[in-house]
Design goal:
Radius of gyration: 38 Å
Order of helices and strands: HHHEEEEE
Strand order of the largest sheet: 1-2-5
Number of strands: 5
Shape: elongated
Number of helices: 3
């Protein structure tokens, strides 16, 4: 018969199943030590975070309100330019009249007309006259507003444009 060896009272774990208790499993001594390079404030990460995250959000917040107003003004000017060009398609200069109409709409909306580029596409038939069927397209492009960024200076915002296409009246009278 084999004899069982008597256990020491410190080896008996009351109410614990599966090994020694957690407080005994740890190594003695203080916890893990941090390396000297891991402590403190890291300036490089702060600068990168600032330039990658904060600066674009500030630029967007500065440009967005004026961008939406300028986009709406460009769309309204393009609608008016296309309407005037379609109405004066048989006249001498539908492009000039459309540019003038777009400038008036922009001035009424407190946008400098000198920042706008107006392009009008009026179809020309084989005889040099405007055909009865077709479309007139007007595109108004506005220069983006500049935003002043500290330490970087002025940065130009995105250009905005509006486009409108209008059908020519096939029943209009021709000279």
């Amino acid at each position: 018969m084999t004899q069982r060896r008597a256990r020491h009272p410190a080896d008996v774990h009351v109410g614990h199943v599966g090994g020694p208790p957690a407080h005994r499993a740890r190594a003695a001594g203080p916890g893990p030590r941090r390396a000297a390079a891991e402590s403190g404030f890291v300036t490089a990460e702060w600068v990168i975070g600032l330039t990658v995250l904060v600066l674009p959000v500030l630029l967007l917040a500065a440009v967005l309100p004026s961008w939406t107003a300028r986009h709406e003004a460009a769309a309204a000017a393009a609608r008016e330019a296309a309407r005037v060009a379609a109405a004066t398609a048989d006249g001498a200069a539908p492009g000039g009249a459309a540019s003038q109409a777009a400038a008036e709409v922009l001035a009424a909306r407190d946008v400098d007309p000198s920042t706008a580029a107006v392009e009008v596409d009026v179809p020309v038939g084989a005889d040099g006259r405007t055909p009865r069927e077709g479309v007139v397209t007007a595109v108004v492009t506005l220069d983006g507003p500049t935003v002043t960024v500290p330490l970087l200076g002025e940065i130009a915002g995105p250009d905005v444009s509006g486009e409108h296409t209008r059908r020519l009246n096939p029943y209009r009278s021709r000279p």
